[in-house]
Amino acid sequence: MDKLLLNSNLFQATASDWIKSIPMDLECYVKELYTQITIKPLYYENQHNILSIINDTKKVQLIEEKNDNQHLVSTKEFHQKGASLIQEIGYTLALLSDILHSKEKNELEKFIKELQLEVYIDTDFFGSISKLQVFRLLLPTILREFITEEHMEFDIPIKAVTSTRTITKEEPQLNLIRKTVEVIAGMIGEANFIELIPYENTDDAKRWSENIFHLLNYESKLKEFGNIVKGCYYLEELTHELCVGAWDLFLQVESNGGYKEYIETGELDKEIAVEREKSIEKMMLGDVKLVGLNSYRRHEPNKYNEKDQDELDHEPEIYHFSNWIEKCHQLANASWDCLILEGASEQEEDLMKNILFTLHSIGLKNKIDADVLFIAGDEKKVNFFQLMNPKKKLVRVVEEVSDEDQYSMSEITHLPNLINELMKIEVQK
Question: Which domains does the chain have, with CATH numbers?
Fold first, then answer.
């Protein structure tokens, strides 16, 4: 081996000095290996940068009073019903297109100049940022179809509104953390205005909610940064995915006669209902977590009975899962278990697992010798079991619900209402 050529200081050795010190029989191998190493970054400067089209961050301000002079198009209806991100964007674009088609030519330019978009954002942090960015990208595409002036710029103000879907009655202070996440998403997503909806209609809740914005705006100085999402690989991919999906959905609505006709067919409500059921199922299975609601929840046994059902149904418009979970929590007042007999189908076994996961995810433990049993299996065996155990309340887990069975379920979404009925009977006794 050649001696390593060094200067007076060891740390001044060059790369060629180190290569010369490698034994002759390994030299070719090491050099070849060295030349084969390549580092591929996740994001390239010359790669198509979907977010670079958007201007740097606008000056964000808190909305305190609504501007009645603006023509407002909102995602509220779709968001509150439980639509997915793609559905919110696609249906809102279809709604806007429908409104534009209804305008006379001499009204269009004035309408577009006064147009403002209202976008509801929630604790899906990256999804909310991307949703705002997608609207920035797709709105001009829609508007250019209605304006003949080629070089007209479209700078439609976007107002982000914090969601009521993520407001919970349980541990209300946690709502402040959720609202903070939503406001940050709105600021990073380049909304022009942010409307922060307090988690309850009290002076304290309103003051604390407004403080969120002021802390982020004046102490964190978040709005002073430029477009900080540029070059973010994950957001690039998510934004592109939402763009493609929402545009395909928009074209689907347009090809079916437009927004009004699509609503009249009932397809829009059906599609949103499917997404809503999925989101409820994910929430109840613990796949989507809200701290204090279905994760790290502190249960108060009599809390559900503090208000009657009529009062709960007429509370302010808050789309959340509190009542759903409270109904399930009534099982805390009884002992329960799941039982699978021979003859159960795969679908029934999967549903039984979902029941277990759901009830365990909100802190309810199944107990031996239970009063309430969720049971699946061959019909004869279930009937025989019921005959031998007349004091137990049986909820049949079946592929299809039959009118003959007093208590039966074929989907996880049937669970809370069944428990509610069972517990009502228990209380009456």
Answer: 1-38 (no CATH), 50-275 (3.20.20.240), 303-428 (3.40.50)
